[in-house]
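Sequence decides. Consider this:

===
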Amino acid sequence: MVARKLETNGAEMPPRKRAVNAVALDEAAKTNGTGANGTRGHRRTGSGLMSRRRVKQILTTIPLIRQEKLNVYVFGTGSMAELGLGPEAKNKEVKRPRLNPYLTVDKVGVVDIAVGGAHTLALDSTGRLWSWGGNDMGVLGRDTSGGEVLKEIKENGSDDDSDDDDDGDLNPKESIPGLVDIPESVKVVQAAASDNMSIALTSTGTVWAWGTFRCNEGLLGFSKDVEIQRTPTELTGLSGITRVAAGKDHILALDAHGNVYSWGNGQQFQLGRRVVERTRMLTLMPREFGVHDAVGLGSGEFHSFAILSNGDVLSWGLNQFGQCGVPSHFEDGAVVSRPTVVPGLSGKNIVQIAAGEHHSVALSREGDLYVFGRLDSFEVGIETSDLPAYTAKDANGRARFIPEPTKLTRGNEPDGDSVPLPKFTAIACGSHHSLAIATDGTLWSWGFGETYQVGQGPAGEDMEVPTRIVNTATKDVKMRLVGAGGQFSVAAGLPKPE
């Protein structure tokens, strides 16, 4: 549910490094290709016998910690402390992007963000991780018990800037960003956040996790022995990891050689493998499932993506609204049960994928957006009159979803004027809304807006097409990062050069 400027929460493909890959390919050709002696996949030893040797190609590397420190902006509804603006009740609704005073360049210096359903993780330039939001499932990775929760707003009444009906203030330990309890010796380079789980990728390629998983029946657990893991713990069985991504209640990890691992809830086939009820607890252990040669990951709430080194995109999981982009599967069982090529994204140079509950957005290397999935809350950002002929309709002829990736071409200025869309560098999806950063650093949003998560002002209306966000706090800011949760959004940037 989060993204950074074109580079790697959705899925992001790293820049191709010909020197590294060329060496690996040359080595592979020497050992696995056809040699001068006409043999294939073998090399001749001193004894004249043939032995098989496999050279693993390095496709991705562990990212370095960014050093560009950013200010953080938040908007939407923060009834569970999602906005991180402090405990006062007036901070529960923010209708346009607002600078978070706790997360400025001089106080923290955020370099990356990961947004879950109701919490956020922020990485600073020293490799430390900060968290805020609802902590019922231990996702903040620190103790928030004992925080004083005020029962009433100030005696003189509600603040004029707040339309919040809930007059209770928030737990300050949840609503004020705090450091995650990870040992100082551990340097985090990337994070991922689901509804109930937090993930940290370290500079050595190990993975730390905390929180829990839920399933259709309720609490699934963190592991077979632990229901809720409230402090960060290092996961065994994972090494050489270079990317992580999170769905609603499942996690994906990618290693340097292109192998993808998954764990968590798999009832909608989002793990890429069949889940048998009697062995359901085994899904809590990270495991490969047959996806290799991957260079990027992406995840929706109940579906998943992998970008391959050849440019193809695979998807799997829940697909009843075409959110996997595999048009032949949305009527047959409503799931894509195994990783399947998304035909509409082949040849599109996809570098990042973000997704919500029932919709998906893909970003190309050229800066174009491709959308597919549900239409009910304008999640895909296409005006009703411009829907393609292959739009799926219900029995009453009502347009329901777009089953194939479709290029977005037009958006709106804040005054409603229709304009050609610019090129983009980063994308993010919440449950039913989407955001994108244009090459000029402006922020665009579309989809469900009732809780102000699209940042377009007090009306709280849905945005039918991508619309540029304009307000005083961000008019001179060039955004670098963007993330989206269930009912809120987070962005980070710096003032534009004068």
The CA atoms of residues 4 and 481 lie 4 Å apart. Residues 4-9, 12-53, 149-165 have pLDDT under 50 and may be disordered.
